[in-house]
Design brief:
- By secondary structure, this protein is mostly helical.
- 91% of the residues lie in helices and 0% in strands.
- The two termini are 83 Å apart.
Length: 190
């Protein structure tokens, strides 16, 4: 389509030049004839009448050339917009792929953290179970003194893991406010 527009513009330009040369030749020939003064008025009116259709067709050609140039500019702008739209689509697809990859990475990290957390919890449970067995195997007086020396939260957690029979044996040797707090937490369901 661009080739046709250019060809049309070239044709219009050549036709305009040819008509301009013919118009100059006609006015030059009338000027050389010796009767220019007598025919001046007649030639002026005829030339004005003859130039009006010529000027009208010239104006139409110029207007058409301007419209064609505008169409060409619009087509170029549309092509540029289409290229930018394609580029934006490519960037959008690339961005979506990156977001998807990040989501997958986040899921893998979350799963890894959960696995570590459950492994650590299992390990802590195993350690706590060993401590429970140790305190069950110890003499009551000795186990009570060790429980009293622990931090209060740890002591209460340990008492919660021990069975009722073992706690009953240890209770006389443990600091009484700790035993009371353990009993109240159990009754409240903490």
């Amino acid at each position: 389509m661009r080739g046709r527009v250019r060809l049309l513009l070239c044709f219009v330009a050549v036709a305009g030049l040819a008509l301009g040369i013919l118009a100059q030749g006609a006015t030059h020939a009338t000027a050389e004839s010796g009767t220019a003064s007598r025919r001046g008025a007649e030639t002026g009116t005829e030339a004005a009448q003859g130039q009006q259709p010529f000027n009208a067709s010239r104006a139409a050609r110029e207007e058409k050339a301007i419209q064609d140039a505008r169409r060409q500019q619009l087509a170029e702008k549309e092509a540029a917009l289409a290229a930018k739209e394609q580029e934006l689509k490519k960037l959008s697809a690339k961005l979506e792929a990156q977001v998807k990859a990040l989501e997958e990475s986040r899921k893998r990290v979350d799963e890894s953290m959960k696995a570590r957390s459950s492994a650590q919890k299992k390990q802590q449970d195993e350690k706590a179970q060993k401590m429970v067995k140790l305190f069950k195997a110890m003499r009551s007086e000795q186990a009570g003194q060790l429980i009293d020396s622990l931090h209060e939260d740890l002591a209460l957690a340990l008492l919660s893991r021990l069975d009722t029979k073992t706690v009953a044996k240890l209770a006389p040797f443990i600091n009484q406010p700790r035993v009371v707090k353990w009993i109240s937490e159990n009754l409240q369901g903490k």
